Amino acid sequence: MKHLDTVRLPQLLPFTGVKFEPRQNTFYRSSIDAEKLIQAAREELAPAKPERFKVFLLAVMVGLRRREIDLLEWSSFRWESGVIRIEPTRYFEAKREYSYADFGVDPELMEIFRGYRARATSDFVIESDVEPRPGATFEHYRCGSVFEKLIAWLREKRVPGSKPLHALRKEFGSQVNAKHGLYSASRALRHGNIEVTAQVYVDKRDRAAIGLGHLLKDDSPKITELKQFSEASGT
């Protein structure tokens, strides 16, 4: 390129002699019993802590990110088609275009949120007295206190890691992967490429075996018959 003809590199190049650290193992290994955790949430959160319960469901059963949950509006629900749509709003704009998507969700989940919608006092799915701050230059959550209390509950339930709320999103991806495969999991998590999904976000539930174990099978008798004991001979 002509505009680089006059560029001269320094004699000592930046990072000369700097060694890369070995890549850390970030593979997600699930230790969450999703069915048991959802049942506990129904019994402990749904009756008296509805906002925490809604956040929990959107994380573990839809795989939404914290900011997406925080600013999710009821207009994102397509009740007739059973879809939740992540799209730009006056308060929300995704960092990447491929983060916008439609999520097909279980009809039972839609029915729960339909009930919440009938009692809603806000355009936002998660109720909060804190106003959104679009354009803020710092991390701001209108539902910060709800998140903190849910995280404390998740830790009580032994959800692992320093970010238990985010662990629910990873568990969602693992569940999709187990049922529909890695490509579907990557689409559901809205990753830029499938490599990110494979390395970080999903636990492979089916452990592959080589399938050659039958070659080690020994068809010879496993029990050696003992000679008949003779009292007369003492043998």
Give me the CATH fold name: hpI Integrase, Chain A
Percentage of β-strand residues? under 5%
- The CATH architecture comes to Orthogonal Bundle
What is the distance, rounded to the nearest whole angstrom, between the alpha carbons of the first and last residues? 97 Å
CATH domain class name: Mainly Alpha
Q: Structural class of the helices, strands and pairings?
A: mainly alpha
> Which stretches are poorly predicted, pLDDT < 50 over at least 5 residues?
229-233
The CATH superfamily title: Intergrase catalytic core
Number of folding domains? Answer: 1
| Average of the residue pLDDT scores | 84
State the share of residues found in helices, binned by percent: 25-40%
Give the topology.
Blueprint: H1 34-44, H2 50-60, H3 66-70, E1 77-78, E2 83-86, E3 101-104, H4 107-118, H5 144-156, H6 164-180, H7 182-189, H8 194-201
Helix pairs in contact: 1-2, 2-5, 6-7, 7-8
Notes on the structure:
With 235 residues, the chain is mainly alpha-helical. The protein is 36% helix and 4% strand. The protein contains eight helices and three strands. It has helices at residues 34-44, 50-60, 66-70, 107-118, 144-156, 164-180, 182-189, 194-201; strands at residues 77-78, 83-86, 101-104. The chain has a three-stranded antiparallel beta sheet with strand order 1-2-3, with no helix packed on it. A hairpin with a 4-residue loop joins strand 1 and strand 2. The longest helix has 17 residues, at 164-180. The protein is globular.
